[in-house]
Amino acid sequence: MSEHVGSVGSVQCVVLDCPDPRALARFYSGLLGGEVDRPDPRWSLEDEWSTLHTPSGLVLAFQGVGDYRPPRWPDPSAPQQFHLDIGVHDLDAAEARALELGAVSLDDRGGARSWRVYADPVGHPFCLVRE
Question: Which residues form a coiled coil (predicted)?
Answer without folding.
Answer: none
